[in-house]
Write a structure and sequence with these properties.
The chain is α+β, with helices and mostly antiparallel strands and 763 residues long. It has 21 helices and 27 strands. The structure holds pteridine-2,4(1H,3H)-dione and dioxothiomolybdenum(VI) ion (MOS). Pteridine-2,4(1H,3H)-dione binds next to helix 9.
Length: 763
């Protein structure tokens, strides 16, 4: 089944926040953000802005009726700056005006007296100064200190990755209305309606029951609206609450880029020990996460980095330590993969460095160390239903790794200026929120008397096709056509206490709840049918297929079944609750069973580098992915393609640059390059691995949102291999993204400095 939103999107009919008809009397808001990254806020000069045309009101921290606090995991983030500013663009004042241009013009008239304080942008500096968001965490397996003695080879190094802008097509925004009885209703472009509700209530000093959040769909989220939609939702709500008028706040692209957090940059130190036959024996790694100025989701992201520190390899002795470092950048946040990609980049870098030094191909090391059933992850979970070997073998068989490598080598032999590189990128990604309690969801299903069905869940549609999946689940479980089912908006009044749509788990969690609710309704209807048809109650489970089958093909019997059930006063609504079974994690031991299951896959990536220009193409990505039993293969394939290209962009061209003052220099699409159509590999093969799926996955279709992003890491190592084909004496340092600029710097690195690593290897 195709994505049900597709036609509406193509015709421009799909409703986004900005398409909601604007009510008369609506005020338009714009935000004044701090011009400095750190300082004491001495005074705000609002007079000129107050007198500007159309300005109705300017709100500051003093106007907040409740608590000026939107921190989730750690209460360390003010909605509007109080006494201090902590990053450039931190919201300080909210201008409400009759039109949006008036509000934006008035913002430009605001000035602030700020006493500058020292600015930290480097996570290692923050760590050295004790500026940590939370205490460090360490995951341990075996005894690495003792294992070094056993290692034939020990490789040490550093790896760095940059951040990543989410660049959802729809910027952050919200539209709030005052409601009867002193509440607010907020249309929010958020992945986490409950988070917006909770923090809005806190800021307004009211109960969550007076705050209703409603979401139709997002024009992209990618993690950027998991936590950080809250600011804009709460600000719009504050405006509506104070003025008793509707308030609409939509960030312009420039403000969105400047004011919101991104994927976390990391800098990490690694030490990897191997046996003579290339078995990984020991791994020590220290991650320094650049959290930015407030905790946001950083501690959770940090944790997922630790969970994925070994990617899809078994290493018997591991010590992984992670620091969440407070700097004066906008608070960094969730981004597809949620720290996993950062952890995986480091182990892949360590393996690449080992391959350089040992004179072997990285995939020879990768191949020998894939996870297998019965082994254990460093966090204590047993490896079960592992498809690491299976996906590698399938990829090898379909794409002929050795032959492909030989072709690349042959090409490089005869091509002096263009060189190719091949890399293999196997992945393993854990599915579940790492915070066990978040793995729950609810669904509310109504069957109307005409046989049509309305389904409400906590799932937010953001282009990933979750609504289509929910409709499929409902239709299949009830045994009716998907045409009879509508997915309602995501609304906190209909479905409460929701987890954000995140962690690749949205379809699993909400889908299971839909399935449970529909099963219950179906049983109820069958019982009614059995009564009407004088069927035997005991035989119900056996006969229910017959009963439903009798309703086909015209489904007129469905309508009859439903309407007669109504007249017999059968309850046609159901609310179900699902909690993923068997999850636990003990943070004191850093051991447990945090994931419902894991998703595996293997990608082969080829890049061609132009050694004159430093430019490159990622020519081909051919991969085998573990979808389980996909019931929406078109949507799932789309997730793989999109995730891959997003990962490829992060690893190759998307370069976020902040200066020493904490100012974003890559603050527009002229300076921040994202993949376009030409960046998509010309060959993009997505093959479905034949596996039974997992019982914790909805209809045994495994989660598909985040895992494919990590195939993009292969592009980094393919480019690196191509550079080394041109300059075997150069060992490019591990610094993502591998921009054409860095390619050139490596290609034209001085011969002398290039000789140094070779000498140290000999010593
Ligand atoms: N969000 C979250 C996530 O709160 N916890 C997670 O484990 C997670 N994982 C991936 C993406 N978002
Ligand atoms: Mo996400 S990074 O699953 O919001």
């Amino acid at each position: 089944m195709h994505n049900l939103d597709a036609a509406g999107h193509v015709r421009g009919e799909s409703q986004y926040l900005d398409d909601i008809p604007v009510q008369r009397g609506t005020l338009h808001a714009a935000v004044y953000g701090s011009p400095l990254a750190h300082g004491k806020l001495l005074s705000l000069n609002l007079e000129a802005a107050r007198r500007a045309p159309g300005v109705v009101r300017i709100l500051t921290a003093q106007d907040i009726p409740g608590e000026n606090q939107i921190g989730g995991i750690v209460p360390d983030e003010e909605l509007l700056a109080g006494s201090h500013v902590h990053f450039q663009g931190m919201p300080v004042a909210l201008v409400l005006a009759e039109t949006e241009p008036q509000a934006r013009a008035a913002v430009k008239l605001i000035t602030a007296d700020i006493e500058p304080l020292p600015i930290i942008t480097d996570p290692r500096e923050a760590q050295a100064k004790g500026e940590l968001i939370v205490p460090p965490r360490t995951f341990r397996l075996g005894d690495p200190a003792a294992a070094w003695a056993e290692c034939a080879h020990i490789i040490e190094g550093t790896a760095e990755n940059g951040g990543q802008e989410h660049l959802y097509i729809e910027t952050q925004g919200a539209y709030a209305y005052p409601t009867d009885g002193g509440g607010v209703r907020v249309h929010s472009s958020t992945q986490g309606p409950t988070a917006v509700q909770r923090h809005t209530a806190r800021v307004l000093g009211t109960g969550m029951h007076k705050v209703e959040i409603d979401v139709t769909r997002l024009g992209g989220g990618f993690g950027g609206k998991e936590d950080q939609a809250t600011t804009w939702g709460a600000l719009a709500a504050l405006g509506a609450f104070v003025t008793k008028k509707p308030v609409k706040l939509v960030l312009g692209r420039h403000d969105d880029l400047r004011m919101t957090g991104k994927r976390h940059p990391y800098t990490s130190d690694f030490k990897l020990g191997l046996s003579a036959d290339l078995k990984l024996l020991a791994y020590e790694v220290t991650f320094y996460q650049n959290a930015g100025a407030a905790a946001d989701l950083s501690p959770a992201v940090l944790e997922r980095t630790l969970f994925h520190a070994c990617n899809t390899y078994f290493i018997p002795n591991v010590r992984a330590t992670a620091y969440s470092c407070r700097t004066h950048l906008p608070p960094n946040t969730a981004f597809r993969g949620f720290g996993g990609p950062q952890g995986m980049f480091v182990i892949e870098s360590a393996i690449a460095k080992a391959a350089d030094e040992l004179g072997v191909l990285a995939w020879e090391i990768q191949r020998r160390n894939l996870l297998q059933d019965g082994q254990v992850f460093p966090y204590g979970q047993r490896v079960e239903d592992c498809n690491a070997e299976l996906s590698w073998q399938a990829a090898d068989q379909k794409f002929e790794l050795k032959k492909w490598q030989a072709e690349v080598d042959a090409f490089n032999q005869q091509s002096p200026v263009r060189k190719r590189g091949l890399a293999v990128m196997p992945i393993c990604f854990g599915i579940s929120f790492t915070k066990t309690a978040m793995n729950q969801a609810r669904a509310l299903v109504h069957i109307y008397t005409d046989g049509s069905v309305g389904v409400s869940t906590g799932a937010v549609e953001m282009g990933q096709g979750v609504n289509t999946k929910m409709i499929q689940v409902a239709a299949r479980t009830l045994g009716i056509s998907p045409k009879r089912v509508r997915l309602e908006t995501t609304n906190t009044t209909r479905v409460a206490n929701t987890s954000p749509s995140a962690a690749s788990a949205t379809a699993d969690l909400n889908g299971k709840a839909v399935e449970m609710a529909c099963r219950e309704l179906r049983t109820r209807l069958l019982r009614h049918a059995a009564e009407d048809l004088k069927m035997n109650y005991e035989g119900l489970e056996i006969q229910d297929e017959q009963v439903l089958a009798a309703g086909k093909p015209a489904e007129t019997n469905w309508e009859k079944l439903v309407s007669t059930a109504y007249w017999k006063r059968v309850n046609l609504s159901e609310n179900a609750h699902y909690a993923t079974p068997d999850l636990w994690f003990d943070q004191t031991q850093e051991k447990g069973h945090p994931f419902a299951y894991h998703v595996y896959g293997t990608a082969l990536v080829q890049a061609t580098v132009d050694a004159m220009r430093g430019t490159y193409d990622v020519d081909a990505v051919r991969l085998v992915h573990d979808f389980g039993q996909s019931f929406t293969p078109g949507i799932d394939r789309g997730q793989i393609e999109g995730g891959l290209v997003q990962g490829l962009g992060w690893m190759t061209m998307e370069e976020l640059i902040y200066n020493q003052d904490g100012r974003l220099l890559s603050n527009a699409l002229s300076t921040y390059k994202v993949p376009d159509l030409y960046s998509v590999p010309k060959v993009l093969d997505v093959e479905f691995l034949e596996t039974p799926g997992h019982p914790n996955a909805i209809l045994r279709a495994k989660a598909v949102g985040e895992p494919p992003l990590m195939y993009g890491l292969g592009a980094y190592f393919a480019i690196r291999n191509a550079v080394r084909a041109f300059r075997p004496d150069v060992r490019p340092e591990f610094s993502a993204p591998f921009t054409p600029e860095k390619v050139l710097l490596n290609l034209y690195a001085a011969r002398e400095s290039a000789a140094a690593p070779a000498a140290s290897q000999a010593s």
